[in-house]
Amino acid sequence: MSTINRENVSRLIVVSANVSGRDLGSVIKEVRDRVKSVKLSSGYYVELGGQFQAQEKATQTLIIAGLAAFAVISVLLYFAVMQEYELTKRQVEAALAYATDLVKQTEVVPLGA
User: Fold this and answer.
1) 5 and 11 Cβ atoms separated by less than 8 Å
2) Is the pLDDT of residue 89 over 70?
3) Which of 26, 25, 24, 2 is closest to 12 using CA atoms?
């Protein structure tokens, strides 16, 4: 038995099904393929919802969270590497300055003198 409901000032017919023995993704793919071949009158459309819609939304949220985490980790690594580079650069500069001072303080004695 089907009932016609209203949602957002439009008529709505809900068709539901339970998936058993198959994964939801393959069932949705098959449903989409079959619905593509159906000619709908003007103003009619098919919308998939329920558990599939929740799964799609969760996947999108995970992708966005993963990309955000990757960006934050990349920025933190960049600053850590730059900080280490600056520290190393200062150490090399200090070592060069020390070596230069040693050379300046060393008296050069000509050979054979």
Assistant:
1) yes
2) yes
3) 2
pLDDT tens track for 20-46? 888 888 888 888 898 888 888 888 888
Handedness of CA 24, 26, 31, 32 (dihedral sign): positive
Q: Report how many helices (DSSP H) and strands (DSSP E) the chain contains, helices first.
A: 2, 2
Q: What are phi and psi of 102, to 5 degrees?
A: -65, -40
Mapped onto helix, strand or coil, the DSSP state of residue 4 is strand
Q: What is the mean pLDDT of the chain?
A: 85
Strand partners, 62: none
The average pLDDT across 66-80 equals 95
Query: DSSP letter string over 8-50?
Result: TTEEEE-------SS-HHHHHHHHHHHHHTSPPPTT------T
The 10 Å Cβ neighbour count of residue 19 is: 13
Nearest Cα neighbor of 34 from 54, 15, 20 is: 15
